[in-house]
Write a structure and sequence with these properties.
21% strand, alpha/beta, Rossmann fold, 4-stranded antiparallel sheet, 211 residues
Amino acid sequence: MMNILLLEDDKILCESLKEYLESEGYRVDTAHRGTDVFDLTFSNTYDLYILDVNVPDTDGFDVLEALKEAGDETPAIYITALTDINSISKAFRIGAEDYIKKPFDPEELVIRIKSKYESDERLIEIGNLVYDPLHKTVQKGQEIITLGEVQANLLHTLIMRANTIVDSYTLMDFLEQPNANALRVNLAKLKSKLGIEIRNVRGQGYMIENL
């Protein structure tokens, strides 16, 4: 599972991106100030940096420059409202892998991450099933098991966060009419259709274990 460090000083946007990335199966640490990045990278190893530019203390350009000078070759993507050609040029000159202009759809960010840093061949076995997280498909033997959009999103989130509890409110966001009863019904149908165990942790949420 990819470990990501996200630098974003807009706390609402930061939390929103963190939740979305985690729903896609990534582990995410966040920083709101440039200097926080140095503290986090001192004690943790990351697979990807996602960096805003205009942040307090040390801006995102200086952060990446300092990391590169220290020999850190972790790939980086900039997410920023700066759209001028000088900023874009500087980002790539100092070693960024990609540059996304705000505002953007979080799904676009995930698509870019998957296309650049994840293999299309990464498959997950669940009992006698094989799950393809890139295409959100489930296969049993030679048969592709068809899931509706809601159940596909529920399954994807639970698998990509396997062995951890996913709170009910996160899962209910995938429903057209979010409520606890509808969530239970959809998860029961998913369990029946796939023959997998989805554990209900009372008062907290749901999880798939032992992947």
